[in-house]
Amino acid sequence: MIRHIVMWKLDDSYTAEEKKKFIEKFSSRLLALNGKIEQLKSISVHENAAQAPSANYDMLLDTSFNSIEDLKSYAVHPEHVEVVEWSKPYKKERSCVDYEY
Fold first, then answer.
1. Overall pTM > 0.90
2. Which of 18, 65, 67, 77 has CA atoms 20 to 30 A from the CA of 42?
3. Helix ranges restricted to H, 32-77
């Protein structure tokens, strides 16, 4: 199994309210991939706690796949690519880790 975890820091030019709305919409769009992409075995999205340091990343995606090949298929799947492209203007930084378990 492969775990694919991605964290994003949102662009500082957006207000707290704009960031909140984006996180809600982005989370919804990511979670909607469940059932549309066969290789995706699990998915969850989390927002940084309000009381956490502001230097933290704003949100996290946690997904799992049966193999690295399945992860690669997910990465280029049109449904996933559409969500990625839609979200790009809001994101300032991205960090990712993929590991076997």
1. yes
2. 18
3. 68-76
